[in-house]
């Protein structure tokens, strides 16, 4: 489980470069095919198409909630003055549009579906931050810390409704199926967040890696899968193609979560927007940590002891986090996470090949999947 | 404003019987037409049609959230054993089905819309109870007190999604318009709850009656209006008929809220399921209270002084509540609320007559509207 070199799907070298099935995915390089669209271009053109739709939708919210939403999206400061902040990387809407294109659809026709997915994503962020008491998101104080729990909950509720209204008002023939699929996904996201909260309440030795992977699939994989599926639905794809694209997004989503967890421990705070070692200081049972705890190594025992220690002892928080990070690494948690991310990417590519056999048509989705798993940190 | 005898639309006598435009609405008697369906029969047959659909839908929730939902609906105890509790009076689904029938539609064809409205209602109850820290609902501890804030929030989120999935999967030609209307209504409900929280944070002298009425319309009237509108949409009605029925439900909803507020002060705790005087003990700015405070009477000054007093003084809570209730009554708050409820009922009947000119066809909706405003207490 902690062997990073013999994974069936891929390996990760010491520089953090992911090797998948003989292809080398390096940071800053185009997707594995060596040609095709750059993920950065796809994301930029997605923002250009989807942002106006998103902003138009948010402008229709009642004033009190619109203010919270505009703050959360980074478009306004807390006092209501305009801000030029970033509302995230638009990976989910990019997956919708790119999946539509990959299956022969018109991406411009799927803009509302893309915006709806982004609204759902942000509704869950608003609510999760309340439940998890997370104080920082996208380098800024979370909405509940600024406006209070009630306004963050209500704005999340309204964003979910806005997403569904957008699809209900879309005359596209795929809209009802997309709305049903998105609603089903919300239920899975809620179950994932519930499982995550439950895992966090349990002791480090009472949590299995399988449980954590299932939770990550529901909490993160489900919406990336749904984004791809919605693109396929809007392209008029058959149900089995839609389901394969859902599988592609889910597997890529798990790879994304694994890398995100790695970044959560060893990432640069200036890039992550969170304090260094915040996940470890909060005793978060992220995937590398749980893999490390399950490794049966002496470092695992040290990590368990560090996690059992309540915060606020004689050791400073950064010292504690640094020791915990070293223990996770020595127990093989970092290597396992990177190898498992490569494994999931390999499975994702397999699902993609089923739905979109033509490598050229699949290039955009592949570039996006690789982008999220080769983020530099 | 506090004159209970000269209201343009109706009067309330000392026995609490509401007189609307010459017709007398007495507790326990059929609706004002003297014939037509009994509200109790409509509610019972609604439960029979809609409950199986609701339960089927809730069974599809992920296990962790299903348990919270089944508890909230009164169908299970907290430990998961079956309970025969009541999931409320089904007024909203009854309005959907009865509106569909009134406009010549088949009520059986609108069952999903009725269930969707009831799911949305319960989603907002789950979330509002968290925000308001309300501990009792339908004679039982609220879900958040049993399962925690996170599970109550997540179950509410999932119920909203379930409502939308139900409409998205409904092949009825009215389903997309109904879904859009229901989503828009959720946004209004959220704005109403936001306004309500904001009003509760302000001092008793900083709140106007108009603000409170607008808040009650958004928080309560909107969903009753939406229920009627969805029935009309499912009957294939024209937009102006749909809007008139929305107006009917809104006005009846405000009448309902006014009577509910009266019951919240003078109601029998065995019937309301809340401790006597709980609204007054919590210094709640309900409509009769705000009307009383605005009356300029000596009793208003006494009430303001009682509301300014922090809870937990030398006086017991029941003593304080009893004095406050008397002050509201002396300041005319009770009479005003009953007269204004009659006024709203009169406006509701006016809107109903526009959409459904045939009194026989309108009988069911009228009976339901009168039922909610002649609840005994």
TrEMBL record, chains A, B:
GO terms for molecular function: metal ion binding; prenyltransferase activity. The keyword Magnesium applies. Signal peptide: none annotated. SUPFAM superfamilies: Terpenoid synthases. GO terms for biological process: isoprenoid biosynthetic process. Keywords: Magnesium, Metal-binding, Transferase. Gene3D superfamilies: Farnesyl Diphosphate Synthase. Belongs to the FPP/GGPP synthase family. PANTHER family: GERANYLGERANYL DIPHOSPHATE SYNTHASE (PTHR12001:SF86), GERANYLGERANYL PYROPHOSPHATE SYNTHASE (PTHR12001). This is Polyprenyl synthetase. The lineage of its organism: Bacteria, Bacillati, Actinomycetota, Actinomycetes, Kitasatosporales.
């Amino acid at each position: 489980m902690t062997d990073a070199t013999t994974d069936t799907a891929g390996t990760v070298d010491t520089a953090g470069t992911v090797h998948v099935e003989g292809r080398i995915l390096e940071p800053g390089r185009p997707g594995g095919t060596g040609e095709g669209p750059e993920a950065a271009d796809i994301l930029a053109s997605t923002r250009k198409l989807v942002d106006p739709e998103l902003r138009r939708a948010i402008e229709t919210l009642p004033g009190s909630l619109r203010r919270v939403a505009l703050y959360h999206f980074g478009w306004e400061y807390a006092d209501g003055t305009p801000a030029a902040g970033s509302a995230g990387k638009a990976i989910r809407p990019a997956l919708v549009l790119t999946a539509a294109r990959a299956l022969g659809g018109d991406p411009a026709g799927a803009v509302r579906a893309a915006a709806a997915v982004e609204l759902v994503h942000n509704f869950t962020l608003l609510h999760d931050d309340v439940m998890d008491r997370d104080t920082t998101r996208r380098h800024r104080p979370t909405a509940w810390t600024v406006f209070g729990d009630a306004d963050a909950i209500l704005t999340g509720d309204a964003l979910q409704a806005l997403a569904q209204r957008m699809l209900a008002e879309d005359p596209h023939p795929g809209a009802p199926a997309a709305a049903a699929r998105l609603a089903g996904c919300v239920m899975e996201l809620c179950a994932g967040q519930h499982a995550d909260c439950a895992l966090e309440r349990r002791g480090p030795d009472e949590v299995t890696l399988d449980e954590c992977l299932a939770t990550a699939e529901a909490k993160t994989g489900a919406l990336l899968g749904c984004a791809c599926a919605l693109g396929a639905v809007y392209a008029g794809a058959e149900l089995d193609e839609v389901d394969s694209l859902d599988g592609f997004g889910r597997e890529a989503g798990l790879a994304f979560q694994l890398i995100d967890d790695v970044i959560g421990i060893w990432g640069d705070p200036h890039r992550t927007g969170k304090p260094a070692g915040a996940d470890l200081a909060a005793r978060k049972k992220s995937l590398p940590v749980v893999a490390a705890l399950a490794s049966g190594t002496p470092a695992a025992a040290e990590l368990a002891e560090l996690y059992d220690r309540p915060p606020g002892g004689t050791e400073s928080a950064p010292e504690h986090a640094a020791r915990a990070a070293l223990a996770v690494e020595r127990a093989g948690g970092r290597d396992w996470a990177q190898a498992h991310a490569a494994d999931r990417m390999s499975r994702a590519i397999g699902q993609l090949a089923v739905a979109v056999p033509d490598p050229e048509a699949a290039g955009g989705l592949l570039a996006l999947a690789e982008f999220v798993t080769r983020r530099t940190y």
